[in-house]
Write a structure and sequence with these properties.
Strand 14, helix 7 and strand 15 form a beta-alpha-beta unit. The chain contains 26 helices and 18 strands. 41% of the residues lie in helices and 15% in strands. The strands form three sheets. Strands 3-2-4-1-10-9-11 form a seven-stranded antiparallel beta sheet, covered by helices on one side. Strands 5-6-7-8-12-13 form a six-stranded antiparallel beta sheet, with helices on one face. The protein has a five-stranded parallel beta sheet with strand order 16-15-14-17-18, sandwiched between helices. 48% of the residues are buried. It has four domains: 243 residues, Glutamine Phosphoribosylpyrophosphate, subunit 1, domain 1; 218 residues, Rossmann fold (3-Layer(aba) Sandwich), CATH 3.40.50; 88 residues, no CATH class; 65 residues, no CATH class. The protein is of the alpha+beta class and 644 residues long. It is globular and about 65 Å long.
């Protein structure tokens, strides 16, 4: 797990020196504190030179680009894992962020081909696969999480790729003068002539969904979509190519097997995935919430580890309505593993919300993000790699909304919306239309509130790209929802995990998103994942996973109402220090910015104890937007920039 950054001058202006790329690297040093490397290169002449990552150096006018890397050493802690990694002839440079869990399956084949390995890293295997097979065939073989940048000086080409599910982030700028790329967009600050500007066209979608499907809230900064790669040459310019299509997954129609057979298969898939993700030359642990998914990962990880060598890290709350501590204790006591639990309270929340925003680089959409920030901060004292249960809900249908979308006639929430919108036919249509209902199932702010919060808010513009995506998906209603969630909701959760863990130089791995686990999940009949009636006295989304957890821990543990790592926002907002922060900084900032209805937000703040759920969620979106705007748009950036 590391950090990549770099840029190419598209026009003929020469590079001045290496001071810019050094700053771009230093600002994300937390992603890789163990080592740094820089190469300058020329796509025109095919030459490259390695530079100091500390001291600026003058650059020959023949060079047109830089590739920089910060390393968090996980496999092969020696200098042999240094990056950017170069081929023997210095004509191919590779910067690789992530882990490839099946990499060593190819090592003998590559050795027989004649490649001589200098390290025991998966990075070098990726490099060798590229040299033997080329880009498309190389990337089709990779099972893992990654962002990859390859400079192929033989072809005068730069290639930039992101893994198929979006576990690792990659951002880029292409403005006619420069093509810049980075694991974190804060590096772009140091580009000549660049400034952070709000893209207001993206704001309506953000208000409704708390994230943006086709980019960021910044003008001219793009997020490379999962399953895509970019190519750049001076002659052909920038091209974007999809190498993975989620519609390649098609749920098997063969329902001849009994549920016990699928349960055994799923257990085998997860066991294999977790076992493969335990490869490391540093200590590993589990991010244990006490929920079904992280508990299953912890079980399989502990089973495949040496005795007494595995530990868990957890966040707990004083408020019993939000704490799953008793379930955390159940897992750790039953598995006999050492656990480390840390308390999240309103004081820590306030003290770290701006710093977490600086690391997240967007308005903090999920309130529990700061809980992951705290967990990762303390985890560093015990482990360097954490396994988490992220992805299980999206792949296996773990949210209540799957049930609501697939069986709308059972959906009491839908009936309530129909009743409430009888006098507003336009709104009513959104809930009666199956596509719009599926898209809106992941919305956090009601359109009626968004219309009051922001003048000119347009629901149709906010959802148009998502409706287009949903209409491109294949399969049953359930399959479409799985694919939709994996392309819209999941990448946002994964970036949250990445940035909060990497803020403290922790690698986060996600066994439920192993290529084979996801592909095999589409062989499980829907009826074994999503039940149309209550079983074991509780909702039965992702039923097969819950059944497995029940066998390991008991029915009460598995078949309970989902808590989902909630945060007691009313309690935190009502804290005296937090209220002072709201009145002294955030409310004046919202009013001066003039983007949102400050009078409505003021009213919410005054009435926090009586706010409905939708209003609390909307208040959260409004204040986290203002925090982000103050950090990035108002350039209160230096407060958290540890590179200075």
């Amino acid at each position: 797990m590391c950090g990549i950054t770099g840029y190419i001058n598209i026009k003929t202006q020469p590079l001045e020196d290496s001071s810019t790329i050094i700053k771009m690297l230093q600002v994300q040093k937390h992603r890789g504190p163990d080592d740094s490397g820089i190469h300058t290169f020329s796509l025109k002449t095919g030459n490259t030179i390695e530079l100091s990552a500390r001291d600026p150096q003058p650059i020959d006018t023949d060079f047109d680009g830089f590739l920089g890397f910060n390393r968090l050493s996980i496999l092969d802690l020696s200098v042999n894992g240094h990056q950017p990694m170069a081929s023997n002839d210095q004509k191919v440079l590779l910067a690789f962020n992530g882990e490839i869990y099946n990499a060593f399956d190819y090592k003998k084949e590559l050795t027989d081909w004649g490649y001589h390995f200098k390290s025991t890293t998966d990075t070098e295997i990726v490099l060798a696969l590229y040299l033997k097979y080329g880009f498309e065939e190389m990337i089709s073989r990779l099972n893992g999480m990654f962002a990859i940048v390859i400079t192929d000086l033989r072809k005068g080409m730069l290639l930039i790729a992101r893994d198929r599910f979006g576990i690792k982030p990659m951002y880029y700028i292409s403005n006619g003068n420069v093509l810049a790329f980075s694991s974190e967009l804060k590096s772009f600050k140091y580009l000549h002539g660049f400034s952070y500007r709000l893209d207001e066209k993206q704001l309506d979608e953000h208000l409704l969904f708390r994230n943006n499907l086709l980019g960021t809230l910044f003008k001219d900064i793009y997020s490379l979509e999962p399953g895509y790669y970019l190519t750049y040459t001076h002659n052909d310019g920038l091209k974007k190519i999809r190498y993975f299509d989620i519609n390649d997954y098609s749920r098997t129609k063969n329902h001849n097997y009994e549920i016990q057979s699928y349960e055994k298969r799923l257990e085998s898939w997860l066991d294999k995935s977790v076992q493969s993700e335990l490869m490391s030359d540093v200590k590993l642990g589990c991010q244990l919430s006490g929920g079904v998914d992280s508990s299953l990962v912890t079980y399989f990880a502990n089973r495949n580890s040496q005795k007494n060598q595995f530990e868990s890290i957890s966040i707990v709350f004083n408020n019993p309505h939000f704490s799953e501590e008793k379930y955390i204790n159940r897992v750790t006591e039953q598995l006999n593993i050492k656990t480390h639990k840390f308390l999240l309270n309103s004081t820590y929340y306030l003290q770290n919300i701006e710093k977490a925003t600086w690391h997240f680089e967007a308005p903090i959409n999920h309130p529990n993000t700061i809980g992951i920030y705290l967990l990762s901060q303390h985890a560093k004292d015990y482990v360097t790699v954490l396994l988490s249960g992220e992805g299980a809900d999206e792949v296996f249908g773990g949210y209540r909304r799957y049930y609501d979308v697939c069986f709308p006639y059972w959906n009491t929430r839908l009936l309530s919306e129909i009743k409430n919108n009888l006098t507003h036919p336009r709104n009513l249509f959104s809930y009666l239309n199956a596509t719009k209902r599926a898209v809106m199932s992941t919305a956090y702010m009601h359109p009626s509130i968004a219309s009051k919060l922001r003048s000119g808010f347009n629901t149709l513009k906010a959802v148009e790209s998502r409706i287009s995506l949903y209409n491109s998906l294949s399969g049953s209603t359930f399959d479409k929802q799985v694919k939709y969630e994996m392309q819209t909701y999941l990448p946002d959760l994964l970036v949250r995990q990445d940035k909060m863990s990497m803020a403290h130089s922790i690698e986060n791995r996600v066994p439920f998103l192993d290529n084979e686990v996801v592909a095999n999940s589409f062989t499980i009949p829907q009826k074994y994942l999503l039940m149309r009636k209550r079983q074991e006295g509780c909702n039965t989304e992702k039923y097969l996973l819950k059944k497995m957890a029940a066998k390991l821990f008991d029915n009460d543990f598995a078949f309970r109402n989902k808590m989902g790592f909630g945060i007691p926002l009313k309690e935190y907002f009502g804290n005296a220090q937090f209220k002072q922060y709201l009145y002294d900084k955030l409310l004046p900032g919202i009013k001066q910015r003039g983007i949102m209805n400050h009078a409505l937000i003021d009213k919410w703040v005054v009435n926090i104890p009586t706010l409905r759920y939708q209003e609390i969620e909307s208040l959260w979106i409004a204040i986290t937007f203002e925090i982000w705007a103050s950090v990035y748009l108002d350039l209160n950036y230096e407060n958290w920039d540890t590179s200075n």
